[in-house]
Amino acid sequence: MLIITTSSEKAKDALRLGANKAIIIGNSEEMLKHSGSFDLIIDTASSKHDLGRFLELPKRNGKMVMVGLPSQPLEIRPFLIVDGHRILAGSGLGGIKGTQEMLDYCEEYGIVSDVEVIPIQKVNEAYERIIKGDVKYMFVIDMSSI
């Protein structure tokens, strides 16, 4: 598994958590080296970003699936999709069955994540931190705190 990120700190974390390789988006040479080499890109970015940089990465008939939900519109250069016979798709939450399949897959392949567990009483504080960008990865609400 390879991760593409904007931060060298996140790259280090990804390698620690089991990624085989990490690419920093700002490294144009590294991005170009991987152009047309992926079967699948899963775009988790929830902020505005240049889709073109990522749409160059899937190989012919490769797919890019967006699961992040930026609040601002993203620009798409149709040529990158049409010329490379690439597929751009989106996927929402998978429900309980899909979530369980994802958890089983992660268990089978040793994929882990860092989370910050918070009590329900801190959900408003967590939301404010999300807006400020003061979250390393994700919050998980401890439901026993209800």
Q: How would you describe the overall organization of this protein?
A:
The structure is a single chain. The chain folds into two domains: 2-112, NAD(P)-binding Rossmann-like Domain (Rossmann fold); 114-146, no CATH class. It is built from six helices and seven strands. Helices cover 35% and strands 24% of the residues. The protein has a three-stranded parallel sheet, with no helix packed on it. It has a two-stranded parallel sheet with strand order 1-2. Strands 6-7 form a two-stranded parallel ribbon.
Strand order of the largest sheet: 3-4-5
Can you say what the CATH homologous superfamily of the largest domain is?
A: NAD(P)-binding Rossmann-like Domain
CATH topology of the largest domain: Rossmann fold
Count of distinct strands? 7
Question: In angstroms, what is the radius of gyration?
Answer: 17 Å
Number of domains: 2
Residue fraction in strands: 15-25%
> Which CATH-level-2 architecture of the largest domain?
3-Layer(aba) Sandwich
CATH class membership of the largest domain:
Alpha Beta
Shape: globular
Sum up the structure in keywords.
alpha/beta; Rossmann fold; two-stranded parallel sheet
Short overview:
The chain is α/β, with parallel strands linked by helices. The chain contains six helices and seven strands, in the order E-H-E-H-E-H-E-H-E-H-E-H-E.
